[in-house]
């Protein structure tokens, strides 16, 4: 409830702010405007702080705790969380500190998610916008290519990549990122197809502006809404894809770990050692929820239609 | 909201109606692990397939409730003085599930089919003790009739061996020695294994098979043992990869017998399901193999140091959790024709800290130390248990100044690498096919495919060859023990623990007897409703 | 229309061919073979097996032989499940996959669209927030985590539903697996639907309609819904693909046979024929679904249809 109230207040603030600004006739920057609205969105800001905290903990945390992520504590196998022993999250089946492993796992998962999402956004938006805008033969050829990629069940891709080149975290990024852009490209293309029929694009074209500037200046900014929404959907999806691969046994190589790997190890211990699932699962869900709220906040802030 | 709730309750009501109509006979539901790949006894390889196959087929010998060989289709047998010729008298009432009699010709046909290179039977080599079998199977002899198996008459079978095999009855219980229905294969060829066509001679017959789901069996009314001896009407062998999910189904009463279990639940089972967890010694060895063809693992000192530093007492009870017994020898306890405990490492009873010191000294002698650390790649196939053992052992080696990088690959890649010698130290395991120590000792013989590390020792090979010719069982056991000792002294490989059979058995199921072969044929089981 | 469909189908043939070729060679270059196993085979036996399945010919010969057989619609034998041909096994798994995937697909579309419309209509009110929170949770919790928890709660603890298995294929057995499979897609579709409907509701033609005094319900269902469905429809193609691969986990956890499981097991077992067979099957299905999506797209947006 509080979340929803905050969101509405945020939007009202935004409206008021704009009205104040208008009469002064200052040129408005879309980004600055959006950022201001984002700052006023309490839910998104809370999510941002939570996310920043998790990132910070993943980066700095391992240096602050007494245990590392790979050395077993021979006296504590599958030990429940305890303050006295210093294993605040307990230990795993190999006697390794779960807090340390969760922090390292978060690092890996974040790295995978961020890089893969960046790849998918850049490639997907450009590809989709060009394809949709160009239309005709170019469009159909480009979409055929996407079809080729789609028609290969992608899990096979990843399995074969992992098998042929060994388990390498960077290959994981590449594989997942290069798969996710397909959907992004399709959605962007779909939007572009309708957008380019809109009056302002036709106006620009009539004024003699050439294709690529139109794409960059008129199409892409108008895609921010769907792209941000989709990217905010993509990050959790990539983390989940990574964990899906871990479940099938194609995760990162020991002693490294990821949140997905930790969770898939934890699911076997439900009822017997719940902390193995609760802590990594809690971190994952919190992180993904935070990311989703940030994504929503960005959408509300950026979407010109809401103004 | 109300919309979705209505459909939900609607679905529940409908399904209750459906469930009421589905009452059936006494069916045992078993979590059976992997997917069955074939019902043809010549085309199998897994223990989960053996569970199905052993219910639907019966060889000359079969297993009792404790997995000891007892006569099956054979009514009686005689052995010649030299131990080379075995003559079996077949039961008159042995019948295929279509009512046709099981004849000596069916066995002759089966053994020939097994050895025929065209059949490409994966496990043909288990029956190589039969005269000329190896030569035929490897294409050195073209004439199948040269095989040492002969039908004297319809009900008399004569098998000639290359050399005496004291454990031969045990070998005859294996699925490679099952008969196949000649009358049917002559008629329909390879299609004989299809459900609806297949006939079998065991207490049960397969009636349904959905790959990825289950194989279902039902009583074979022509089985010679008599229907009154069977309590269970059929078995549903479930193929499931996710053992945790299987365990949940067991908890909900959907599964009666689990042939594996999620290791993390050991304590839960002991506390909440008393008597249902059956953890018993199992004739199997879990070990690491050194690639002795590559430095530094050609150096015995390095191998010994690594072996000394493995604290085996921790692996079973703590890392795996079900208390697998530590392996200080190569042959699991409880094998026939062998002392209960064979050879052991000299240092087996030394305290761990002392062993660790010794290991450090050995590594130093071998030229490794703080300024020249030993780098080891430890390979294992993707599996939770293998991972845990590898992580623990890597941590045990660390104090020696050994840097371990772990490498896990899928099972097919792992074994391809082992076959090609593309590894340094790798995980391997062996389950006994028949009840004799040579099963394990052969793994270290020169020129054997399973000797992945290519460790080679002339004395060892000679002792094994000598044992094969020795008829006196005590004398033979002594020779084999000597061989085992050589393997341990020279650290041919690194034994870690002996397997446990791990079955979770519902209190409904009676007659389940733990045994070292983990074979529990359904004919010995019964079920209360 | 028929010509359009035929043209599209014809243009997919080279795509499928390229994909088959790529799969064939990638698979063969991956390490490990169908007969590598825990118990090594004597070289002679291995040679026998390879000869039996014609794996001893050169790759090109094998490839041409495969294509030749494929042209006669023969998918060849399975190297691992030896009693079944690839085609027969797929035929056995097909009904399970279609029932499971189809139910989940329908549930995802219906549930997602309904939830999305609700969310948009009650924009920024408690119903919206509630739906958003549920959707978010559905998105961020991986299915191999949801499935065991649902199994534990409804199967083991409450005993209301079977924990696993196909049983008689009735709704009792289907409910949990279908729900698990559909959950993330319900979430994704509802978010897309909500966002797009809010945007449409803010567009001029809807404002005009509202100004004319047409009832809110009629505005949404009669005017706004159709254009707002565009991003949802463009997501359906990929969603179908994800459902197919996502079903792997669901099939494994619930112990249900299906093509997804056949595929993963075949890839792990290097059952070349089976992998190719399932890949071809998947490609055909995905191509078909994408075609349907394109048709739906044309129906939704008249401007696209004209082109």
From TrEMBL, chain B:
Residues 68-447 form the Solute-binding protein family domain. Belongs to the bacterial solute-binding protein 5 family. This is Peptide ABC transporter substrate-binding protein. Keywords: Signal, Transport. InterPro entries: Peptide/Ni-bd, SBP_5, SBP_5_CS, SBP_5_dom. PANTHER family: PERIPLASMIC BINDING COMPONENT OF ABC TRANSPORTER, PERIPLASMIC OLIGOPEPTIDE-BINDING PROTEIN-RELATED. It comes from Jiella avicenniae. PROSITE patterns: SBP_BACTERIAL_5. Its main location: periplasm. Residues 1-25 form the signal peptide. GO terms for cellular component: ATP-binding cassette (ABC) transporter complex; outer membrane-bounded periplasmic space. It comes from the Bacteria. GO terms for molecular function: peptide transmembrane transporter activity. GO terms for biological process: peptide transport. It is found in: Periplasm.
UniProtKB/TrEMBL annotation, chain C:
InterPro entries: MetI-like, MetI-like_sf. It comes from the Bacteria. It is a multi-pass membrane protein. It holds the Pfam family BPD_transp_1. The chain crosses the membrane at residues 12-30, 98-122, 129-150, 170-187, 235-259, 279-300. The keyword Iron does not apply. It is found in: Cell membrane. Keywords: Cell membrane, Membrane, Transmembrane, Transmembrane helix, Transport. GO terms for biological process: transmembrane transport. Residues 94-293 form the ABC transmembrane type-1 domain. PANTHER family: DIPEPTIDE TRANSPORT SYSTEM PERMEASE PROTEIN DPPB-RELATED. This is ABC transporter permease subunit.
């Amino acid at each position: 409830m509080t979340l929803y109230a905050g969101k509405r207040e945020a939007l009202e603030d935004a409206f008021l702010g704009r009205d104040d600004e208008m009469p002064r006739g200052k040129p408005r920057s879309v980004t600055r405007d959006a950022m201001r609205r984002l700052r006023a969105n309490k839910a998104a800001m809370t999510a941002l702080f939570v996310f920043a905290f998790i990132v910070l903990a993943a980066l700095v945390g391992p240096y602050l705790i007494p245990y590392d992520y790979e050395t077993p504590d021979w006296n504590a196998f599958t030990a429940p969380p305890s303050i006295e022993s210093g294993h605040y999250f307990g230990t795993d089946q190999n006697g390794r500190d779960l807090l340390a492993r969760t922090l390292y796992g978060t690092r890996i998962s974040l790295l995978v998610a961020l890089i893969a999402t960046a790849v998918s956004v850049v490639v997907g938006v450009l590809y989709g916008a060009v394809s949709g805008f160009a239309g005709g033969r170019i469009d159909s050829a480009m979409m055929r290519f996407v079809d080729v990629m789609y028609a290969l069940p992608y899990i096979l891709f990843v399995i074969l990549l992992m098998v042929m080149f060994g388990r390498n975290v960077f290959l994981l990024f590449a594989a997942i990122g290069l798969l996710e852009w397909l959907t992004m490209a399709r959605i962007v293309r779909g939007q572009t197809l309708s957008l380019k029929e809109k009056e302002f694009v036709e106006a620009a074209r009539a004024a003699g502006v050439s294709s690529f500037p139109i794409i960059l200046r008129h199409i892409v900014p108008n895609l921010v809404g769907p792209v941000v929404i989709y990217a905010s959907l993509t990050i959790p999806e990539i983390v989940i894809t990574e964990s899906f691969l871990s479940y099938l046994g194609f995760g990162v190589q020991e002693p490294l770990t990821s949140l997905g790997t930790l969770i898939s190890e934890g699911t076997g211990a439900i009822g017997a050692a719940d902390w193995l699932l609760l802590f990594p699962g809690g971190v994952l869900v919190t992180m993904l929820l935070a990311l989703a709220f940030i994504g929503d906040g960005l959408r509300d802030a950026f979407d010109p239609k809401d103004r | 909201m109300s919309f979705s709730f209505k459909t939900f309750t609607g679905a529940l009501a409908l399904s209750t109606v459906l469930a009421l109509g589905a009452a059936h006979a006494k069916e045992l539901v078993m979590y059976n692990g992997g997917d069955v790949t074939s019902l043809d006894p010549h085309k199998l390889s897994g223990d989960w397939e053996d569970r199905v196959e052993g219910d639907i087929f019966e060889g000359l010998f079969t297993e009792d409730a404790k997995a000891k060989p007892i006569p099956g289709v054979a009514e009686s047998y005689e052995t010649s003085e030299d131990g080379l010729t075995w003559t079996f008298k077949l039961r008159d009432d042995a019948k295929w599930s279509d009512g046709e009699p099981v004849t000596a010709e069916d066995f002759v046909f089966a053994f020939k089919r097994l050895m025929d290179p065209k059949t490409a039977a994966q496990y043909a080599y288990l029956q190589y003790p039969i005269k000329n079998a190896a030569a035929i199977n490897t294409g050195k002899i073209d004439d199948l009739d040269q095989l040492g198996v002969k039908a004297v008459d319809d009900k008399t079978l004569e098998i000639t061996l290359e050399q005496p095999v004291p454990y031969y009855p045990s070998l005859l219980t294996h699925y490679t020695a099952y008969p196949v229905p000649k009358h049917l294969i002559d008629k329909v060829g390879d299609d004989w294994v299809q459900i609806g066509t297949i006939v079998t001679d065991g207490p049960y017959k397969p009636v349904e098979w959905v790959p990825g789901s289950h194989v279902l069996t039902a009583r074979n009314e022509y089985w010679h043992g008599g229907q009154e001896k069977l309590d269970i009407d059929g078995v549903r062998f479930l193929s499931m990869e996710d053992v945790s999910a299987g365990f949940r189904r067991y908890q909900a009463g959907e599964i009666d017998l689990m042939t594996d279990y999620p290791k993390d639940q050991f304590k839960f089972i002991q506390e909440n399901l008393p008597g249902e967890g059956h953890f018993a010694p199992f004739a199997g060895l879990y070990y690491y193999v050194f690639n002795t063809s590559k430095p530094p693992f050609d150096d015995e000192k390095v191998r010994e140091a690594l072996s000394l530093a493995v604290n085996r007492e921790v692996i079973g009870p703590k890392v795996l959790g079900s208390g697998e017994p530590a392996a200080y020898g190569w042959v699991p306890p409880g094998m026939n024709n062998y002392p209960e405990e064979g050879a052991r490492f000299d240092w087996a009873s030394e305290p761990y800290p002392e062993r660790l010191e010794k290991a450090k000294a050995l590594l130093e002698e071998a030229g490794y130390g703080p300024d020249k650390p030993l780098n080891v790649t430890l390979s294992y196939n993707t599996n939770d248990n293998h991972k845990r053992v590898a992580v623990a052992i890597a941590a045990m080696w660390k104090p020696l100044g050994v840097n371990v990088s772990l490498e896990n690959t899928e099972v097919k890649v792992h074994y391809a690498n082992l076959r090609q010698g593309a590894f340094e130290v790798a995980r391997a395991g062996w389950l006994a096919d028949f009840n004799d120590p040579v099963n394990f000792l052969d793994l270290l013989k020169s020129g054997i495919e399973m000797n992945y590390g290519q460790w080679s020792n002339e004395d060892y090979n000679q002792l094994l060859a000598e044992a094969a010719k020795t008829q006196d069982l005590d004398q033979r056991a002594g020779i084999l023990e000597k061989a085992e000792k050589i393997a341990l002294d020279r650290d041919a490989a690194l034994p870690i623990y002996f397997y446990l059979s791990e079955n979770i058995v519902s209190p409904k199921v009676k007659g389940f007897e733990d045994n070292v072969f983990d074979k529990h044929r359904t004919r010995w089981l019964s079920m209360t409703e | 229309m028929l010509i359009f469909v035929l043209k599209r189908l014809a243009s997919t043939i080279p795509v499928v061919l390229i994909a088959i070729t790529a799969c064939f060679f990638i698979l063969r270059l991956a390490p490990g073979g169908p007969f590598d196993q825990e118990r090594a085979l004597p070289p002679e036996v291995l040679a026998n097996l390879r000869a039996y399945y014609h794996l001893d010919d050169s790759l090109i010969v094998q490839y041409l032989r495969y294509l030749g057989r494929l042209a006669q619609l023969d998918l060849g034998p399975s190297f691992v499940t030896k009693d079944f041909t690839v085609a027969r096994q797929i035929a056995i798994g097909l009904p399970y996959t279609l029932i499971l995937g189809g139910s989940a697909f329908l549930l995802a579309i219906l549930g997602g669209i309904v939830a999305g419309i609700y969310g948009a209509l009650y924009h920024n009110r408690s119903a919206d927030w509630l739906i958003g929170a549920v959707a978010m949770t559905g998105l961020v919790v991986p299915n191999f985590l949801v499935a065991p928890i649902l199994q534990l709660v409804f199967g083991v603890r409450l005993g209301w539903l079977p924990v696993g298995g196909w049983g008689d294929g009735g709704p009792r057995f289907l409910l949990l697996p279908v729900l698990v499979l559909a959950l993330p897609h319900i979430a994704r579709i509802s978010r897309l639907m909500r966002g797009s409907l809010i945007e449409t509701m803010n567009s001029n033609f809807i404002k005009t309609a509202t100004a004319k005094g047409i009832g809110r319900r009629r505005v949404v269902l009669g005017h706004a819904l159709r254009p707002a469905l565009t991003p949802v429809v463009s997501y359906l193609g990929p969603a179908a693909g994800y459902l197919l691969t996502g079903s792997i986990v669901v099939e494994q956890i619930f112990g249900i046979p299906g093509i997804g499981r056949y595929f993963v097991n075949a890839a792990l077992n290097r059952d070349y024929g089976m992998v190719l067979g399932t890949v071809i099957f998947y490609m055909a299905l995905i191509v078909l679904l994408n075609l349907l999506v394109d048709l739906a797209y044309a129906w939704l947006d008249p401007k696209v249809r004209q082109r």
